[in-house]
Each structure stands twice: as C-alpha cells, then as structure tokens.
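Tutorial sheet, problem 5. The four components below are modelled jointly, 1344 residues in total.
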Amino acid sequence: MTKVKFAVAGLGRIGKIHLENLLQMDQVEVVAVMDPMEECREYARERKIPHIVNTYDELLVVAPFDSVVICSPTDTHADYVEMAAKAGIHVFCEKPLDLSMQRVVEVLKVVKETNIKLMLGFNRRFDKEFRKVHDLVKQGAVGQPHLVKITSRDPGAPPVSYIKQSGGLFLDMTIHDFDMARFVVGKEIEEVYAKGAVLVDPAIGEAGDIDTAVVTLTYTDGTMAVIDNSREAAYGYDQRIEVFGSKGMAQADNNYEDSHRLYTGKGIQGSLPLHFFLERYAAAYKSEMASYVTSLKNGDTMEVDGTDGLRSLQIGLAAIKSLREKRPVKIEEIGN
Amino acid sequence: MTKVKFAVAGLGRIGKIHLENLLQMDQVEVVAVMDPMEECREYARERKIPHIVNTYDELLVVAPFDSVVICSPTDTHADYVEMAAKAGIHVFCEKPLDLSMQRVVEVLKVVKETNIKLMLGFNRRFDKEFRKVHDLVKQGAVGQPHLVKITSRDPGAPPVSYIKQSGGLFLDMTIHDFDMARFVVGKEIEEVYAKGAVLVDPAIGEAGDIDTAVVTLTYTDGTMAVIDNSREAAYGYDQRIEVFGSKGMAQADNNYEDSHRLYTGKGIQGSLPLHFFLERYAAAYKSEMASYVTSLKNGDTMEVDGTDGLRSLQIGLAAIKSLREKRPVKIEEIGN
Amino acid sequence: MTKVKFAVAGLGRIGKIHLENLLQMDQVEVVAVMDPMEECREYARERKIPHIVNTYDELLVVAPFDSVVICSPTDTHADYVEMAAKAGIHVFCEKPLDLSMQRVVEVLKVVKETNIKLMLGFNRRFDKEFRKVHDLVKQGAVGQPHLVKITSRDPGAPPVSYIKQSGGLFLDMTIHDFDMARFVVGKEIEEVYAKGAVLVDPAIGEAGDIDTAVVTLTYTDGTMAVIDNSREAAYGYDQRIEVFGSKGMAQADNNYEDSHRLYTGKGIQGSLPLHFFLERYAAAYKSEMASYVTSLKNGDTMEVDGTDGLRSLQIGLAAIKSLREKRPVKIEEIGN
Amino acid sequence: MTKVKFAVAGLGRIGKIHLENLLQMDQVEVVAVMDPMEECREYARERKIPHIVNTYDELLVVAPFDSVVICSPTDTHADYVEMAAKAGIHVFCEKPLDLSMQRVVEVLKVVKETNIKLMLGFNRRFDKEFRKVHDLVKQGAVGQPHLVKITSRDPGAPPVSYIKQSGGLFLDMTIHDFDMARFVVGKEIEEVYAKGAVLVDPAIGEAGDIDTAVVTLTYTDGTMAVIDNSREAAYGYDQRIEVFGSKGMAQADNNYEDSHRLYTGKGIQGSLPLHFFLERYAAAYKSEMASYVTSLKNGDTMEVDGTDGLRSLQIGLAAIKSLREKRPVKIEEIGN
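Model answer (structure tokens):
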C-alpha cells in the first residue's frame, strides 16, 4: 500500500489536532510541517516529522508530498491554497478561505483550473450528532423539512483583538451554523434576516461587532431556519440542532462530560456539556480527516468543497448587511 | 364563608373546562350558565346549575352573581365584557378581547371606569413548566436574560373557516407565545420581525394566512426572543421554552403521556407529548381559575389583566404587518 | 341511568381521596359515610353527604347502598368485609385484608359464599407508568420476561408506633411491590429471599423491623425479580420499574414536579420526583375507583381481587421468614 | 525524559487495545511483543515493534524492559506473572490472575517477595461514568451508602466452549461487577447470595453454567449491593450503576451511540447504548494504562492491585457456592 504523503502548514491548536490524527492513520505519511514559531516546530520534532520548516515557501520545496493541510491564520489561506494548487498539491484548508467574496472566487478558479482537490474544514458535518440528524432527514424520517433550529453558543468570547480581524461573529462563529443549515437539509439559502445585540462585553460592541444574535434564514423553497448565538454561555459549549418536518422532528443534544445524575433533597444535578469545540468535536476532527484522506485515495468528490466555503461566506456577508441595514437581505444582493 | 357567585357564558370546549373547575371549588357557587345550544344547556342541567338560559341578556338578569366567565365566540367578547362591567360584574374573559386595537382600548376604558376586575385567559402562565422557568428567571437563576426561545406547534390545523374569522396564526395561536415572551422575563416588546410560509395546507394560504412561522421579537432593552410555530406537528402538541442569560439557561420540556422507555434491538422508544392543549394545560386551567377566584376574594390585582391582552394584540398586529411588508416593525407603529 | 349507591367507611387520608373521586363520578351517588372522628364527619357534612354516622354498624343500616369503600384501620378490614358481604354489599377494601393468612382465607371464603364483588386497593396497578410497562410486556414488546427490577423508596419513615402494628416493612410497604412483581409480568412467585438492615433509624430496629431491604423473588418459571426498599430517600418518593426480557427492556421512571432544566456554571439541575404517594398516585386512585365502579356496573371480574391480596400477603410472610431464618423460603412453606 | 520500556504478551482483542494505547504515550517505548499466532505478530510488525517473538520464554530475554502487559489466555496469567516477577519486571495483568484461590495467593506471595508492582485490569474503574459515581460517593454527596445497584448485561453470550474454561458467568463476567461493588463505595463484602437461571441458551445450562443472575452482596457494615446480569441484552451492552445513601442517590447511565431523538406520530425514538465493551470502555482502557504508567514512573501504589483480584475471585467463588447450595455464603467460607 502506497501511503499518501502529507504536509501540515501551521501547528496551532487545530494544526496539532490534524497532525495527531494524520499520525494515527495507516495510509498516511506526514513528511513535512511548517510553523514560524519555534515551540510548534519543537512539537513536530518530538513526533519525528522528517522535515520541519519555518515558511510556507520552504515547505512547498522541502520534500515531495501529495497534500497539504492548511491551518495557518485566515489571511494566509487564499494565498497558500493557490500556491499549493499551482504546485499540483491537494489541499485541506481550515475555513474560511477568505473574508472577501472576490478573493474566494479567484482562488476557486485556480483550484478548478489546476484540477486539484480542495476540502474545507467544516468539521461539524462530521460530528456524529449532526450527521445522525442529517441522515435521518435524508432518509425522509421527518418528511419534508419545514423548520431548522440551530443553537450555537460558545463558553466565552475570544479576545477583542481576534474579533477585529476575524470578520466578527457572523464570519468566525455563525459561519459554521450557516454551513450546518445548508448541510442538514441539503438546501440553499435565499434570504437572511439578522438581529443582534451586545450583551456579553461592551468592548465587542466598541470593536463594531455583536455578541448575541438571532438569524432567520429562508431557503429557496420558502422553508426557514433560525440560528441563535451567544459568545458566552456560562454553562459551556452549547451546540444543538432540530429539524422539524411534515412527518416529525429530529433533534440532537449536546455531549456531556458524563451521564451521572445526583439526587439529593435539593434537586437533581448532572454534568455540564463538554466545555468547548476541542472536546466536543475531537472525534469529528478525526472523521473529517479520514474522509479527506479516503476521498483523496479513491479520487472521490470531497464531502465539503470550495463551493461550500463560498456559500457560507455569502450568507455571513448577507447577515452583516442585514444587521446594518435592519432588513432582510437576499443572497443575490451579495453577488458571487 | 360567603361563596363567590359565578355565571358562565358559553359552554363550548373551554367553557366546560372552566365550569368543571368552578364546580370543584369550595368558595364558589355557580348560579347561572348561558349557551345558545340545547346540548350545552343539557350539560349544565346534568350538573344541576340553578339557572340555565339561552342569551347573554337573559343571563345578566336571571339571578344576581359577582362574576361572569366569558367563553363565547371571540366577536362577542368585547360587548359582553362591557355589558358585565356596566352591571358591576367582574369578568374572566377568554383571550382575545377583540381583534381590533381600537375596540380593545374602548373596552378597557369601560373596565377602568366601572372599576370592575378583569382577568384574561392566558392559561399558559399557570402551566407548572412555564411558571417554573418564569420563577427561575425572576429569582435571577439565569442572570440577565439575553435570549428567549419559544417553540409552539399544534398537532393539527383548525378548519380554514375558523382561520378566516380568528385573525390568523399570529392572532389565534402565536398570541399565546407573545404573551409568554412578555411574561417569562417580565419585559416589553419593542420590535417584531415575522417570516412565514404555507407548508402544511395550501387552503390556509388561499385564505390569506400562513401555517408555519419564525418570529423574532426585540425587547425594549435590546435583548431578543424567537418563536417558531407550526399548525401541524405530526407528533402532537409541542410547547417548549428556553431562557438564556448571563449566568445560565432555564428550559422546560413538553409533558409526555408517560415516562416509559422501551429498549429493543431497533433502538429506544418513548411516548409522545400530551396530544393537545386540553391534556397539556388541564392543570393550568384549574390553577388559572383558582388564581382568579383568589384575587377576586382578596381584592388583589389580577395576575393577567386587560393590558396583557392589549400588548399581545399589538405584537400580533405588528407581526402581521411585518409579514406583509417584509421588514421589522416597531410596536409603536401599531399605536395604542 | 341508575346511579350506583356508595358508602365510605373511614375518612382518613385515603378515605378522603376515594370520597372526592366518587363525588366526581356521574354514575355514582354517595349516600353515607362513617367515621368515629368528628372532624372527618364535618368534612363529609361540607360535601353534603346525606347520611353521616359514627360506627360501621350504623352505616350498614342507615340507608340502602350497593357498595362500601373500606378505608378504616387495617385491623377492622376483615370484619368489615365479612359484615358487608353478609349484607350482600359489594366491597372495595384498602389493602391488606388482614395480616393473618388464616383470617384472610376465612374472609375470602365468606366473599365467595355470599357472591359479592371484592376489589383490593393495589392502586399502583392503575398508575399510568406501571400500567404502560405491564401493557408492553403483555404485548410481547420485551419478549419472554427474564428479570423484573422494582425500586420503591419512601421519602421518610412512618412513626415507630405505626410500624409496630402494620406488620413492618414487608407487610405495609413492600407488599405493594410484591403485588407489582406479580402484576407486571402476570406470573406467580415461588420463592423469596430477603436481606435487610436498619440504616435509617435505630428505633425501627428496636421495634423489631428493618428499614432497608433487597428482596429476590423467583417466579414459578424460574425467572427472577428483585426489589429494593428504603424507608427514607432524601430526594423523595422513588418508584421505578424495569422489565428485562428476551427481546428488550421496558422501564418507567418517577414522575417529577416539573421538567425544567437549569444550566449554570455549576452543572445542570432539575426538579425532584413528586414527593409522596398522594402526589404520585393521585391519578391512579381516580382510575382505580373508576375501574371498580365500571366492573360493578358491568358485572365484570374485578381487576384486583381477594386472591391478589392473599398472594401478596403470602410473599410478605415468606420475606419475613426468610429474613429471620437467613435463607430462601418457598411460598408453599407459608401455606394457604 | 527516560521512557519506560514495555513488552506486551498476547495480542488478542485486548492486547491490541493496550498496545495501541501504549504506542500513543510519549513516556512509553514498546520494545517487544509476543504472540503464538502469525497474524498477531504481523500486526506488531506493521507497527514496527523492534522485537517480535512466539513465546513468553523468548520474550523475557529478547530485550531488556521494565514492564510487561499480560493479555494471554487466563490459564497462563499466574505463571507469566511469577516469571516476570522473578525477573524483576513490573506487571500489568488482565483479570483474573487465576481461577484458584490457592494459586492466586501463591502468585501474590511471589509478587510481594520480589517487590515488583502489579496492576490488575479492572478497566471499568477507569470509565468516566463509574468513576464519577465513585467520586461523588467519596465526597459524601450521597451521605452514608446504603444500597448499591449494578446492572451488567452483555449483548450476546460467548461460545459455550469459552464458558467451559472461563469459570462461568460469575468468574468471567460478574467478577467485574464484584470489583465495582467494592470500588464504588470502598467497602468489603462479607456475604453473598446468588440466584441464577438458564434463560438465554440451554447449551449454557448443559455446560453447567447459568446465563441470568441476581446476586445480593452484604458489606461488612451490613449495607447491601445487588447485581443483575444477563448474557444477552437484545439492545446491546447495558452497564449502569446506582448508589443510594442517607443523603441521596448517584446514578450513571449507559453511553449511547448518539443523543438524537426522532419524534414522529408513532412515538419518540433514540439510539442504542454503545454495543459492547470495546466501544463503551475504549477511553477507560486508555485511562487505565495511563494510570499504570504514571504509577510506575512515580513509584505510586497501583490503583488496582493483586488484592483486588483476590477479593473479586473470593466473591465469585462464594457466588458459585451460594448458587449450588441455595443459601447465603459468607466470604470467610471461601478462605484466603
């Protein structure tokens, strides 16, 4: 069995997760990693990665490999994907490709011309809970879907410095929910109405963003989805979904630290949801990378592709416009 | 102990419930009932109600009583309340008082001038589930409320003939949720954005109404509520609430037929929610009437008063306007 | 429609419940009640019961009636049933008929000879949770039943004075579980092994009883049931059941004060089970009496009859013997 | 950092799990494995284990190592532990050490004399669910423990050939529950009463074993535990625990495939428990080995030691004696 040769660009929190998962796959060989920080390179050295470099330019020439996993900062994604594509290297890229529609369109053009495979890191599609609901919907278990409800709340707000460059709530956080809204019922969004508020931290408001939101999405068939977000849930990471349809409803709950129940004279107590995405989605990251590697090996269509990145960005930009203009915004207003 | 003398106007489904509950109260004596239909009067005869008449005019003079419970059709509510008020009789009236803001304002003026007590039948406020969440919020258990989520779905659509005269989804069904949104956090609504669709029955659309909706409410303090409705949930009556705040979240679930779980090789099965409002809110109707009677006897402020009816109607009318004009509508646009 | 004429003997806690339920039935007329205590007779007077007397002898002659409901102290049950039977009056009697096997056999002989109907008050058979599991088992949903598990814990121990005359844990509390073990799978018990301890209150031990127990029952087909009891559960009344069989398992949970969940940084909290039997079994008492009245009117076999009382007593006596002799005891050792 | 050098003896199902977990630990180096089967040695070759041999004799001399993980058949455990001990090698051994009390006592004597560390593979102690209940009990959350309830059912019976050499239900399956009964409340068992039946497969009965059991354990302080077992639960692996005490109750539920709920007109459905021990205890096996390695490195007392193996065996043998002699059996009757 020939192993697929991989490089990893960026060994931050997510990069390390992808690297560990790749190292456990029989059909994969990680030949090189790149990170500008010494401590990340040291991390790679302990794992005996053959080639360890400081820059993406070096990475592309240090050794031959079939695929690169891009986990560097968002503003490098577009360039790195293009560079890999032009070198004939397949790409797994963390979302988003870019915050500009125009730039994303350009990159996808290069991807298409170079005929490389591109997969976007919408990890939640590989979470067993969301996937189960998706599968039930696909099997017709709820009939025709009428309403999708997504609750998505983080345990705490990121630093304001991060928010300033991330594109804000709708582009760094809700974008996952926009993708989920499309994925879970396999339908496209036509219109967005976003309402938001600054309730968690005034500094977020001063930075021009919101921290709490309710977003109503309308699919092209007139059915609806509603997403509610908060940057700070006191009880931890809250990630639930519900699809209501003509024949019933499918729900998925959070994953909890454990299932215990303690009954005392004061009431019944249980454990909290898994604290944040690293805990909740640990298995999803593994499945995601396995899906990518399998698709690569079999020459299959990627489960999440560049268009999925484009669509989520469109919805996010429409949400921002809706919030600013206090009106529902059609996706077509965002352009393509 | 002097008993409070009651009359009941209208012995339809709800009228019968209120009558039964009144008959079981030690401090109440039901002296008269009125219904234009013979079978309803026969129902009263079996219960040995002293005076049984055909019309509201007759009712008001057949015997002296302290309070009337109005369960007749919606279009009679305003007149009947006014007539009772002018006769110095206290009133428990099923919601809504009227579908016209102007008429409601007129009636409330008469109520005020005559100094009678008026309670509106927003029964869900007396449901133990909703009340528990309300109490937790009031005690500060979730901190400052940021988001309210209400799911409210009926097991099946009413006849189109009913919808044509009821004012439609927002005035006959969501109006309960509008009241709940105000009640559960004790805050007023400032703005409404309503999105709807006809997904259950095209005849409802032909009658000018919708059967599925997502409504975003903004409170005067900038926090939000979102309501989702459907006229037809295949699995029965779905009535849930969630309040998310700075310190946590409080939820209430449906009430189920029973708690059984059946584990077989095919999965785990359980029973459905109680089928509809008569089952789910049986105890709430009892508590509601007990609250009314107690407030009457003690001369207390009513737990739900005319203003609560007025506010819910305003929100409903704003929702209709929002749906038609495809934009968020301020409550102040509806007038008072 | 001719109404069935009823008398109620004994207006303690349970007597009052039965009286209220009877008063709400259209097909029933309560013509007389008896209680030696003035305050109980006053309670009856407020409900306008036509005949109110002090003694059972008076009751039997004060007015003609079809059926008596016996809720007087346990040591009067046998005599009262016999007296009613000899007067041709049908009987609903609270359990147990008597603590002596011999006396129970005598009474059942009289019941048979006089051809009256007798129903025993094993109210839990009418609880919707237990009945659901019973029905699922009967329908074959779990296949052949292999194991029955019953958890039955009270919120607090009764006074030691009560325990001294009640026959102790196995005869005043577990006897309900013995009946349930027979009912839920429709099989008879052949052998009992009881293990117990005094863990709640030493005074209970000094009175010769235990307050905590694990009882293993073997059915005549070799399958098993296990019951665990405690006189004092800090969190309230704990009444659960589980039937495991060749094709699956059916469980029923407690009924809770409400379904709320409160999520905070400290964990998730919910409400306790309904506190005690009056709350948990309120609906079951109503269904039980309805069943009795319906069986009476239709001349049907009683859902719970004298033999059910006899069998539970046998099991209870076998449990006491097992505990004392520290060995499994066959039901046949108890005699009949 | 010096790595701890490991060997693994036996690469069956459990051996492979331990090997994989060891390979992922930074502080561990697996230097050798032994298995008599070629396919297992091939498995090791793919993982690039330096030394791969056919026999335990060869293993002990092929290279120096600090610890051996013994996952070979039960009848080799005692000899292998002794041989390792005499070679000054620490041991992690799958349970049971042996089916004979005398042989276990001999082995533990050697372990003591040679002063090596020995840990027994009671993996469930490292399951997050059981551990949480253990921790809550230890913290006093339920007060004084009065009753322990353990449900332990396998998804299907092993081959009768396995049962013939395993020691039967109580020694190959319930032995985990006996250990759990001791662990969860930190108390020793004094008496056992076992009742069993052949309900799953007559061939198991013909082999002299049972497939369904209820076992009542009495702790030295007079409190009780009850275990129920079945070789075949149609719905999969059922592993639950409950500790009831003076101040409350702590429970842990199964782990489920996912949390979804599907509501349709027919009822509510959910996913089954994780199918068997490999799925349910995957994380527990990892934690178990981490605990062993950490204790080794730090020179700490092992979390599960030889005495724990001895005690569980005693209880198992007492259960067998109780079943045969149809009476409660004191642990002291088994000897030491």
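Marking note: Residues 123 and 285 of chain A are 6 Å apart (CA to CA). Full credit if you identified this.
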